[in-house]
Structure formats: C-alpha cells, structure tokens
Design a protein that fits this description.
The protein is mainly α. It is built from 16 helices and no strands.
Length: 308
C-alpha cells in the first residue's frame, strides 16, 4: 500500500525502482522479526548476568546466594536461544542489540516488575505449556506494550515506522507454535514461501499485487467513480482510493483468495491508515464493485458460491 501510494505521488519514479524498495522493506521487516525474537534471549542473558553478579558479591544476601532461576531456566527461551534458524540469521547478518544496551535494561526492569513475571516466578508448574504461555504473555502484555521500544525501532530504520506492532504480533504467533519435541529445529517464519519448483510464491504474490494495481489504475478509478453515486471522487481520501485499487487487484487476480477475506483485510488496513469512516465506505464500495465484476465474468473464484 505504501509503495503504491509512493508511486502515485512520485510522478517520475520507475515501477522497477519502487518495486525494489518494496522488497527491501519486506527484508527489513524480516530483520525486525529476528531482532524481536533476539530481544527475549538478551533479556534472559541480562537476568543471568545479574544473578551471577549477586552471587559473586563479597557479602551476598540470602536471596542473592539462592536466587529464583525460574526465568533464566525457561525451556522455551532456551529453545529460542539455541534455534538454528535464528542463530543462522544472526551469524549471516550480525544482528544484535549491542547498540541499545540501555533499552534492553529498561525492558528488563519492566519485565521484572510486571504481574506476568511475578506470577510466573511464583508458579510451581514446570510444564512446557506453562512456560510457553508465560513467554507468549510476556511479549504480548509487557514487551509489546512498552512504547519506548517502538520509538527506538523507528529511530533505527524508517522501514520500521509502521511495521513494529505487526512484527511483534508475528513473533507472538511464532512462539505459540513452538513445540518441545522440535528443540533447536523449531521452524520460524520464512521471508518468502517456496513452492515445489523453487518459485517464490510470496514474491510472485507481492509483485503481481503491486504491478497490477498500478497497471489498472485508470480502470479501477473509473469503477470507483461509477459506483460512488452521491460521492464526489475528488472528496474521497486519496489513501482510500489506493487501498481500493490494491483490494480490487487481489480480488480479481487471485482466484484462491475468498472475496470476504480480501474485504476484511483491506477494511482493517483502511481503519489503521486512513480516516475513521474509511472502513465503512470501502466495504460498501468493494462489495458493490465485486458483485458487478462477478456478473461481468471478470471475477472467477474457485468455489465462488461458497465464498462470496
């Protein structure tokens, strides 16, 4: 969406250059995904270091001599720290939190003063599922809610301005899928999916969605104008038009994606990136246009009678 918007606004920028920037932004999101996963490992390491410092004091307190190690012994975080895919990515990119030690400390302090942490440390259950639920909740309720984290990420890369919250949600999704039996071989999300012959399925999807949205700009705009009825198209938010162009491309070009799925996705995007009323407007417009295109035979979905 951002890249289609950028292309429409640029005037003289080539499709190839904008598409290149699009795929670079995707690679940066993939980098951020690993960085957030690594943050859990960094917090655990910091906790371990503090325990060691306490034990090595000249006159340690009873609590320092016999600390509660439940957090640093968490099986799921240990599994993550040993994950072959995370470590391979770190090794190949040099990814680290070395440039933000104070932020890691601040997040650690947020963690240890949270109810999520204190409840877990007092819990007697050692089951894998209990430990996994804690880690998921820790990211969801504590780390993912810490606003300075997003400020820091936005300062590190302009590509992370709008991606951070989404990436955190993907980290949560990944952690929920962890299984003890997978050990260090637990799969992480891939940047692109490959199908049987090695074709990058996701890359093909993104490229088609981007290029066809631009290629059909005029015809999609005319469709929107036709079904706007009492709306003057000049009064419609430009972002709404961009979103509808991309949504129409997805609805028309991808027969396996149900229309309702596309509608719901772009309504949510509109709510987040456009005006408060955009979701309702876009829903109504796309519904009318898709009905029209089905009757014209321009939308052919597999199992259409079940998914429209």
């Amino acid at each position: 969406m951002q890249m289609v918007y950028a292309f429409y606004q640029s005037g003289d920028e080539s499709v190839k250059n904008i598409e290149k920037a699009l795929f670079y932004s995707i690679s940066k999101s993939f980098e951020l995904y690993h960085l957030v996963l690594l943050l859990l490992v960094e917090i655990k390491n910091l906790a371990g270091n503090r325990i060691e410092v306490g034990r090595n004091k000249k006159i340690p307190s009873p609590e320092e001599l016999n600390p509660n190690t439940r957090f640093i012994d968490n099986i799921v975080i240990a599994q993550l720290s040993e994950n072959i895919y995370l470590n391979k990515y770190i090794e190949s990119t040099g990814l680290s939190w070395a440039n933000a030690p104070e932020l890691v400390k601040e997040i650690f302090e947020e963690v240890i003063k949270s109810d999520v942490y204190s409840n877990y440390m007092a819990d007697k259950s050692d089951s894998y599922e209990t430990q996994k639920r804690f880690v998921v909740k820790l990211v969801e309720k504590v780390i993912g809610q810490y606003e300075p984290l997003y400020t820091q990420l936005e300062e590190q890369s302009v590509f992370w301005n709008d991606e951070s919250e989404f990436v955190v949600s993907m980290v949560i999704k990944t952690l929920k899928e962890f299984e003890k039996a997978n050990g260090p071989n637990q799969m992480l999300l891939q940047e692109v999916k490959k199908v049987g012959d090695g074709v990058d399925e996701d890359r093909e999807f993104v490229s088609t969605l981007f290029r066809k949205s631009i290629l059909n700009k005029e015809s999609y705009t005319e469709l929107i104008r036709q079904f706007s009825q009492n709306w003057d198209l000049d009064r419609v938010a430009f972002m709404d038009i961009v979103i509808m162009h991309i949504a129409l491309t997805e609805i028309i070009e991808f027969p396996l994606i149900p229309i309702k799925v596309s509608l719901n996705e772009y309504i949510e995007i509109a709510k987040h990136y456009s005006t408060p009323k955009s979701g309702i407007y876009i829903n109504g417009m796309l519904d009318k246009i898709s009905d029209h295109l089905i009757k014209e035979g321009k939308i052919k979905k597999i199992g259409l009678e079940e998914i429209k």
